[in-house]
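We include the entry.

. . .
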Amino acid sequence: MHDRILEEASRLFLRNGVRSITMNEIAEALGMSKRTLYEHFPNKEVLLQESIKHNHNKYVESIKKLLDTLENPLEIIHIHITEVFKVISNAHPNFINDLNKYHPEICKKVVIPNRTAAISFTEEVIKRGVKQGYFREDINPSIMANIAHLQFQLMDDSAFDNYSKTDVFEHTVMTFIRGIATEKGHKMIDKLFYNEK
């Protein structure tokens, strides 16, 4: 029951935005009374925080699985960004901005610390790419991983309000991986990311 609540709450927060969703609406979507919902989560703030933690744990599991089952770093990136595209496509455009503006404590306690796992994942993929000859040897994987995630954070800047999040994300990712790729890497990027279009 606990996880089912977190799954549905996460879906509603992400799709509709944090501000517009009420505990009543979450209870209705789950087909339960508001009282039952409050027995599990005392308020919306706690439910939001636990939903973000829940999603982060699922994210960590998914990237661990990718690292464990695939060797080619560009295949890992391709699968990963395909999944991220799905999330971004279904997300409310103000989701992150609302979190930052109306729930700064959650951002401080949960969202910002969670970036560490994403940066570590990116660094590991870049290291593999260097080792396998897909990425340049003259780059520092740790620096580049941090640069990548700083660029992703800029996606919510007002400068991109007139563009779709998926377009901004695609441009950010493709510019980044092409910038660190070798000739061998460019060939694999073209095969994975462009031949299918």
